[in-house]
Write a structure and sequence with these properties.
heterotetramer; A mainly alpha (491); B mainly alpha (491); C mainly alpha (124); D mainly alpha (497); B: 491 residues; mainly alpha; 20 helices; 2 strands; globular; C: 124 residues; Helix Hairpins; elongated
Amino acid sequence: MKEIMMLVVILLPIITGILVPLLPFKQRKHMEVFLEGLVVLNSLLVWWLLTGSQEEAFTLARFTGNLTITFKIDGMSMVFAGLVSALWPFATLYAFEYMTKEEHEKTFFAFYTMTYGVTLGIALAGNMLTLYFFYELLTLVTVPLVMHTLTREAILASRKYLYYSLGGAAFAFIGLIFIIIYGNTTDFVLGGVLDLNKIGDRTNTLLLIYVMAFMGFGVKAAVCPFNSWLPDAGVAPTPVTALLHAVAVVKSGAFAILRLTYYSFGTDFLKGTWAQTVVMLIAMFTIVYGCSRAVKETHIKRRLAYSTISNLSYIVFGATLMTPLGMMGALSHMVFHAVMKISSFFCAGAIMHQTDKHYVHELDGLGYKMPWVFTVFTISAFGLMGVPGLAGFVSKWNLASAAVESGNPVAYAGIVCLLISALLTAIYMLTIVVRAFFPGKDFDDSSIQDIKDPSWKMLVPLVIFTVFIILFGLCSGPVVSFLKDVANGGY
Amino acid sequence: MIYLMLLPILFPILMGISLLVRKEMKNRPALLITTGVSLIITALLGLLAIILARGEMLLLFNLTATLPIIFKIDNMGMVFAGMTMIVFVCAGFFSFEYMKHEQKEKRYYGYYLIVFGILMALCFAGNIITFYLFFEILTLSSMPLVLHNGSREAVMAGLKYLFYSLCGAYMALFGLYFLNKYGNTLSFSEGGVINAELAAGNIQLLLAVAFVMILGFSVKAGMFPMHAWLPAAHPVAPAPASAVLSAVIVKAGVLGIVRVVYYLFGASFLRGTWVQTAWMILTLITVFMGSMLAYREPVLKKRLAYSTVSQVSYILFGLSVMDAGSVTGGVLHVICHAFIKAALFLCAGAIIYKTGKTRVDELRGIGKEMPLLLWCYTIVSLGLIGIPPTGGFVSKWYLAVGALESGMPGFSWVGPVVLLISALLTAGYLLPVTIHGFFPGADYDYQKLQKKEPNSFMTVPVLILTVLSVLVGLFPNVLINFIQQFVTKIV
Amino acid sequence: MGTNLFSNYGEAVAMILFVIGFTNLLLQKNLIKKIIGLNIMDSAVYLFLAEKGYINGRTVPIVVNGVQDVEAYINPIPSGLVLTGIVVSVSVSALMLSLTIRLYRRYHTLDLDEISIRLKKEGL
Amino acid sequence: MDFIQNFPFFSIILSMFSGTVCSVLPRKAARWVNTIVVSVAGILSLILLIYLIGTGESYTYMMGHFPAPWGNEIRAGILEALMALFFCIIMLLSMLGGRKKLDDEVVESKHNLYYILVNLLLSSLLALVYTNDLFTAYVFVEINTIAACGLIMIRQNGRTIEAAVRYMIMSLLGSGMLLLGICMLYDLTGHLLMSNIKESVELIMAEGTYHVPLLITIALMSVGLAIKSALFPFHAWLPDAYGYSIVSSAAMLSSLVSKGYIFLLMKIIYRVIGFDVFDGSRIIDVLFVFGLMGMIFGSLNAIEENDIRRMIAFSSVAQIGYIYMGIGMGTQAGMTASVFHILSHAATKSLLFIAAIGLTDVSGGSRKFIDLTGAAYRNKWAGVAFMVGSLSMVGVPMFSGFISKLLFAQAAVQNHGKMLPALIVLAISTILNAIYFMKTVIRIYTPVEESKYESITFKNMKLYAVTLVCFIILNVVLGISSQPIVDLIEQGLAMFA
């Protein structure tokens, strides 16, 4: 029974999305109710699935040979699916308010909702092929969202996004092939499925392939040098940028990397090889690179996008530690960063929506006009910096202590990168905050007299996310221990 | 009873927040009363906590599974706490008058109270995590004090302060990660927490870590090479704020170093290593350089800021010697310097408030205009130079003697020499104000002279501080015995 | 090697002819010359076949006065192949020629490259 | 012997005669005859396929009463039957899909001629598939060439004639080499029937004599066929030929004619020379390298192209490169992948051509991308079809392209020497495919404010839409339930050897 439910939670949003343009809604409100209702329902279903007892794998279709489309719920899928399904309803709610200013929102909501299903597909994928399949699908359903505004740069951005992702997939595909050939099975098994007898003396080739596949999936996780699509994709409406380019899409890239490293190639095969060093260095470089670009950037959303790039590489760095602790750190940052970044993106969106200001230097003194938004933004900024008592600190702590535990000198250097990036994060986030709250002596707020906080639809998600940032920060015990179980193969 | 120690922390913070969120209040007296009362109450609560909850340990909650938030009032903490309370109350009352000619008083008092609470928390922190938590929040919450007047210069200085301190904080955090692995526990315990068998083989690594942590905290303490923020940040703040910054907040860095060196790594672990040598060299450089710069500095407040740089490094030098006597001297100098520097800044503030003069060469005849103030100034200056019978003399005496007794090759005499030279320089940069103030010279026309003695809001705090600094010098034994008895435990 | 070459000079000539025809068909600009090249190439192959099919001192497998024993005749299949091949090449050359005529009617030239340049100009 | 065993012969002869009949019938009748014949041939081969799966072994069928080695033979195995079936399906669909264009673009008087040519093409293809005799193969290759040339130039304008001439020249070069190769082989072995030749080739190899001539022969034949099937760098004629002939011709040329030659080559490799001998020769590496280069350069040309039809044509250069790469790997798996790719590419490419024509029609007949903006909204069916085709080409799962990519990659992994180049080029060419196909898809789905072209509704393109749907279904079937087909191919290859 529950096996079928896995399929249902994936298909329900997709069907809903297809229905949205077809159904004749009397007025916008009806559509809102319809969508929100179904999304919430789906999320509830997902949570019901996750909290339920362990289920068998469910095989949907069968490609050539033993390649199947299979769904299974294991620890990682619980984390990712839970995360996505927790965020989506809020994001949708926020989108209703935001999209009032945009055109043909029906198509937007159609694809937006379909993406939900596809992302769940990635989360629940039971083997590499399924993951790959939904990974490709994700690219396709999100492209219309990127090119939604249909401006020239939107189209260019969507093209770039498409080329990068499909190209990345092409390399990930090679990895897939090797897992098929050299693995006992393509299913995800913590610790890897490679059959060492089959490999024989071709270890180096396989490592090379691993690096290729890593870079392939890394395109979505925006590792250097394949990250330039992400800031460009910021032309999309903010709900997209916030949820997809801070959580769903990019995290699915990181998710895929985790799957590849821990569940397919296996850490004991990769650990201590040159491949590990290479990917770790890539991650470290990206961490610093993203931050420094963010500091240079003056467009708010692009700045946040760059910050996302570096934060994603935190996750990737955790993954490349190739220890259970590292995975735990990666997962925790995956969750916590999602909450923090989505709230900061929503703040940026709210600012744009209320004031049509897009650049940092335009924000002077807005802090007192939109106190809610900017308080939330400040908190998320502190969180991203890793101020103790907020979510960011915990995940960074996990990552860094995992790096220390791993005893790998490169990882020590990685800690330095983490801290440098924390400092840069402080620079690029707090300059915004300071501008907003301390506009300077001779600043006249006549120009921004009539600016005020957005309506509840936008504020509710913001506040809730903030609460979660603080909660995770103060008593992250349960979450972290759960993640630790996941990383150690519990569930 | 044990929760008592939370009151002096939470009460001012809550008061401050309530002040911040409350909308601009019209009648000034109400604001002043609230602030004043809460200052007094906080001080009393602090006293109460010290008396009643002393030596007890309070585990508040766990940040993560392994990171408890612990409060513990030990002797070292008491010393710093007492110093903090006195200075804060004095400076607070001083600002009631001073802040008349600044806007946004409410915001100022709000942050002032918050900083007070956080400093108390720092003093009472029972483990390094708690300390680090409040250390970072201290930076964030004291920044508004720096950039209070919102001028471009102030904002820049504020950001500089912020980024330097964060940089330091993150260096400390870097060490934290390693302590987490190589230490038995993270809570402060006399003689260090390093786990011998874990540390075996990683000594060099740990030494490097220790050095990084010392550097990190020494950023707040304005030690060379990370001192550049201090001369920029302290002078731009309102005078009472700079008094607090210079007298107390820099001491947070000192406290951090004390905690790291004597309560985490342990003196025995570091004594005689390259870390001690390098650290000592840095302190000596700072001592000399600070006085030198102060000597060349025309603007009074900047000059005082530089003097802070040099004086705090006296303390650090004392600590770096790791000899009972010198450490005692250092801790004693913490107190003396706090009183003295606060007094000096308040004087400078009073002068600016009354006459608007900032440069030393403008101050000719100031002694005729406000004799009482200048007398206080002169007395505390003598103290800072280290002329008996003021407090400064005692502390410096202990510093020098300790250095000599420590018998370190070279430094045992290089240190005292440097201190001596710097003392001379101190005389060189402080006394000219007195001299020109009282003996304006023949061409000073006494017709234009009118009394500008500020009202008691300003004079009383200055007087109190002066008297205290003298008292420390006159009856040092009480303090010294108290300090020595716990210093001997940790050295 | 040399001796072998001399002993079956027929095949050698066929090969040379084939190469000549091939290069003509490939490199000539002029369509007619290309077609001639084509024919040379084909006939070279037929020559080759015929040469291989002929055995010294035997006669064509055509029954005139009573069937003699098999040794008297050469293998008929190559000759059959040659005939078929000739038919094919005739038809092909006919097609080519007709195409050439069409092109010439349109563009009044036999130079293929020039034609394609014209086409570019037409921008069709 | 069962009656069903006659079917190959029937289908060949039927289509040939119907071709001649078409010349005298009126236009509509001719069209019907053509349609019926193609479908009948399809059905026949389907029955044959089922029959063969039942018996599980191939058979040779004696033409006339001369037994081997004198007589002429037809051979039918699972693979042959499958190919024949597939060719019929594709041809039928392309004819239906292109019918409207035929009426628009070709003068009435030429229609009969067109149907004649199509029937001839079909018969020659079937003959190529079924024949067991090299010389017959050669003859039908020529017939095939002539028919194809006719198909190209049926639409009378300078471009097509020029294209036809170029096509002719190239393929004549090819067939010349093929012919010479055949003759030399005959000279070496004294046989024309594939099976007999193979025996004597094995003999030669065993004795170890005549290596050089054998090598030359292999080279001549494979290069000849490679030229005819437009393997890079012999593809100069292809873009014009596919780009300017009428759509159904283009579809058939790209997905049938060249594939017919490739299939013949495979047959030669297996049934004449023997796989191991071929694998031993250098030629296989040459084919491999040319395949790789084709994959890259074809796509690069396609990216530069500004004309949708020519773009698709160039993409088939790349796809043919895939097939030759598969052959060049010299493993059974690689061969299987190539055969599967023949099918999937046939399905996808003709779909793309036909969809493209629908898009250009609603864009004022212009094939420039700038005019195609938003075409997918004006002709929804064509838009969807084109998207499906593109996704399949890019190799998105659930479509046929993905499976062939999968098979290729798996095959590549088994050949250690050629693994990395193959895989990397595979990945790169995927990216390039993505670049030009997705660019086009985004372009046609970018709405324009006020379009100057009227959009077309389902009513006035029923047949067209139906064709597209059939193509899409074909694609998806190949993509999802490919396992049985792959099994069939493997069995068929086994029967070959």
